[in-house]
Amino acid sequence: MFSILLVHHGETHTFELQPDATVTDLANEIEDVLHIPIDNQKLMVAKLGMLKAPFDGRPIADLENKKITLLGTSSAEIASLKSASEKAAARQARLATARKNAPKAYSSRHDPLRAQEESQYTFMALRPLPNLPRPERSLQFLERLKQDPGIRAAMRAHRFSVGLLTEMDPLSYTESNHEGTTRILGLNRNKGEVIELRLRTDAYDGYRDYKTIRNTLCHELAHNVHGPHDRDFWDLCHQIEREVAKADWKSGGHSVGEGEFYEPSEETAYDHGGWTGGEFVLGGGGRSTTGATLSRREIMAKAAEERLKKQRQARADPDGDASGPSGS
User: Fold this and answer.
1) Which residue from 41, 83, 155, 254 puts its CA 20 to 30 A from 260's CA?
2) pLDDT at residue 293 tops 50
3) Is this structure's pTM higher than 0.85?
4) In the prediction, which pLDDT does 268 show?
């Protein structure tokens, strides 16, 4: 008897054959033992090369004491592969059907009027602060705001066009006193000529929450129409926030808080009204009783006075009937 050793999938198998057996006889034995059809068998034999079906009448003695590697797939493996292939084909068919039946995404390329509106009612320029670390990251953040589907929809709806959207230096517009720290998160100059947003953290080591900054932008866009923080301003501001949240398909059209919108506290304020020509304007008025433009320090002092006044009125009328000017 001849002992033929071969390796298949890393395992060694031994086959005993008669001295007058041929390679075809070996192939039949392989089919019976390893369930690999003859047509799928390939024998890599040292110094002889590859032998494959249909095997000739080569004597089995030619393979004695030679390293043999069997290449071939068993019937079970073939069935498994076929099943996997059929499942993959079915899955692809389902996906193709779903894509075919799904509503097509709206594209402004097929609507010349919308394309014109999107090019007109937008931010004409984006500018990070080049003196701060990695300005390219701030530019990406500003670009994200510009391309935000909710912001784009709101700007078209209200026909807002902003000349420049830029970032604010974290060290700017920050005041600390015994009442706490006030950080202005955004400014709007000349009703949309420039909008400035505080993107970075105070330590310059990261960026603030995106949705908070986006709400700040909604707030500043409302200043394109209304200067003072009166009821008309807040109604428009919250309307813009709702429109942005509804049109934000990336978040499923839902806002955080189920319709609750963030109004800034005294410690962290969006702004102190609009500002014109590089000088701040308190509550949209912008001039003192003497006619002089208020300085930033005067504005902050006046805002502090207003807060103290409201606190005194609240203490004087514990039932909450006291009335006074709204805060920043």
Assistant:
1) 155
2) no
3) no
4) 41
Token pair in block for residue 319? 């039932």
The answer to whether 306 touches 325, Cβ cutoff 8 Å, is: yes
pLDDT, one tens digit per residue, over 83-129 is 888 888 888 888 888 777 766 555 555 667 777 787 889 999 999 98
Q: In Å, how far are 14, 169, 192, 320, 327 from 261, measured between CA atoms?
A: 77, 25, 22, 23, 17
Cβ–Cβ under 8 Å, residues 314 and 324: no
What is the DSSP-derived secondary structure letter of residue 33? H
Mean pLDDT of the chain: 75
Evaluate whether 18 touches 28 at the Cβ level (below 8 Å).
Answer: no
Number of H helices, E strands in the chain: 8, 13
Q: What is the mean pLDDT of residues 15-31?
A: 90
C-alpha 261/C-alpha 258 separation (Å) is: 9
Question: In the structure encoding, which two tokens stand for residue 187, read together?
Answer: 């400014």
Give the span between the Cα atoms of 323 and 190, in whole angstroms.
Answer: 30
CA angle 264, 268, 270 (to 5 degrees): 55
Q: Look at the block and give the residue holding tokens 């089995």.
A: 60
Tell me: the pLDDT tens digits for 162-177?
999 999 888 777 776 6
The strand pair at 68-71 and 180-183 is best described as unpaired
Element (H, E) at 221: helix 210-222
Active site residues: 220
Domains plus CATH for the chain? 2-71 (3.10.20.90), 112-316 (no CATH)
What H or E segment, with its residue span, contains residue 196? strand 194-197
